[in-house]
Write a structure and sequence with these properties.
single chain, mainly alpha, two-stranded antiparallel sheet
Length: 439
């Protein structure tokens, strides 16, 4: 063993982080397991990849204005890249798509290792296990792109604010919701640089999209989302899905024109109204979080605390997920990036300090919760999805599938409430930490 490796090993042990060999083993084995499931077990479940291939294959005929209108314009260009690399071949498209997602995944691991906190090994291990529990869905849809962009933005926010803002801008251009996070970066000493980065990438892509597709195409994702019904996996559909498991004839489940399974029948209208009200209330809570975070750091002129930023990011994303009338399984990875960033600064478990670290305790609790949520989500989709979407009548797996859905959504709600409460506790925890350090 060289002197350098000895020093690295000693530093790892003293910090309480995982050894590099363990981290590398977890990273490699988790991706191999994902590939095995993706290729051998779920080989025929590439519905979204086939959809992306078909839409981009005919892009020249249909035009940008009518292609993938449910997504922002830059997504069309992003999804067209595997088409160009694959020469129009459907299998080649799938291969290039997965390669691109894997490269992005590994790039985020590198960002965690290079720029994360002293518990970067724990962060990469969590991220690896989390993706494994979400399942091969992460390779079949493009939602890992905004998840990684937001996670990397959280890691880089303090030391590289301009890059962090630029990453959020790209994320907002691809999936819209990351735009809600930029106010969290625009405080403290780095407010100007983060905003400049966001405006260059996000604003630039918005202007290019407007020039390429026009105003109707620019706002089509918002119109599409507003017109959708109650998706069976959403938090607001959970009561009806539970009743539907016992009385399937009272409600109808079918795939709508928005390419999602939605529930129809008694009580749906009221739950849609409740979800709309919850979305407004959630927006007000997000605004309160942004204001609290701003005054926690912005007025004092201090740097933003990385842990507080990651917690606030998680809270905003979770609120967006649970208040919406739609909830697709690919939304779950959105939470993994910021939580991995948080873990890189806090570590996991009890630690070696005499007094418990509140941030470490919170991160450990959320990691356990999110891993359970991820596994339950994979049970719901794709493992047992046909047992709840009415494609199979009297399916014996319906009780288990419904239970997984109820558990997943219930945990998501508790997870979100815990995050909101923790956002309010963060300034006090930081103040106690500073007082302790000064003594």
């Amino acid at each position: 063993m060289t002197q350098t490796s000895e020093r690295t090993s000693s530093a790892t042990r003293s910090s309480g982080d995982l050894p590099g060999a363990v981290v590398l083993t977890v990273l490699v084995l988790s991706r191999l397991a994902l590939f095995a499931v993706w290729y051998f077990v779920r080989a025929l479940e590439y519905g979204d990849l086939n959809y992306y291939w078909e839409k981009t294959f005919h892009l020249g005929e249909t035009g940008l204005a009518t292609t993938l209108r449910e997504y922002p314009t830059p997504v069309v260009w992003l999804l067209d890249l595997p088409q160009l690399l694959g020469g129009g071949s459907r299998p080649a498209y799938a291969a290039w798509f997965v390669v691109g997602i894997l490269i992005l995944d590994l790039a985020f691991c590198w960002v965690l290792w290079r720029f994360g906190g002293r518990f970067r090994g724990w962060a990469i291990a969590f991220w690896s296990v989390f993706l494994l529990l979400v399942g091969p869905l992460v390779w079949n849809r493009f939602d890992l792109v905004p998840a990684v962009l937001v996670g990397a933005a959280a890691v880089l926010a303090v030391r590289h604010p301009r890059t962090s803002g630029a990453l959020l801008g790209i994320g907002a251009a691809i999936k819209l919701w990351p735009a809600a996070l930029i106010p969290l970066l625009v405080n403290g000493r780095n407010r100007g640089r983060a905003l400049v980065g966001f405006l260059i990438t996000g604003g630039g892509l918005a202007l290019i999209s407007l020039a390429a597709g026009g105003w109707p195409r620019l706002i089509s994702p918002l119109v599409w989302q507003g017109d959708r019904g109650l998706q069976i996996e959403s938090v607001w559909a959970t009561p009806l899905m539970l009743f539907h498991a016992f009385e399937p004839d009272r409600w109808e489940i079918r795939i709508s024109s928005y390419q999602a399974f939605e529930i129809f029948g008694q009580g749906v209208g009221k739950l849609l109204l409740l979800s709309n009200v919850a979305t407004v209330i959630g927006g007000l809570v997000v605004l309160a979080i942004l204001i609290r975070s701003f005054f926690a750091a912005g007025t004092s002129g201090q740097h933003v605390d990385s842990r507080g930023l990651a917690i606030a990011m998680l809270a905003v994303i979770a609120i967006i997920i649970i208040t919406n009338k739609t909830l697709s399984p690919q939304y779950i990875p959105w939470l993994g990036g910021p939580l991995a960033a948080l873990v890189s600064w806090t570590g996991l478990g009890r630690g070696r300090r005499a007094e418990p670290d509140p941030f470490r305790s919170m991160a450990t609790r959320w990691v356990v919760a999110l891993l359970v949520i991820a596994f339950a989500s994979q049970l719901v989709f794709p493992t047992l999805y046909d047992a709840i979407n009415d494609l199979h009548v009297d399916d014996p797996w319906t009780p288990l599938a419904t239970t997984a859905l109820v558990v997943r959504n219930g945990l998501l709600v508790l997870f979100t409430l815990d995050l909101i409460w923790s956002v309010w506790r963060t300034p006090q925890a930081l103040a106690r930490e500073r007082r302790t350090a000064a003594e």
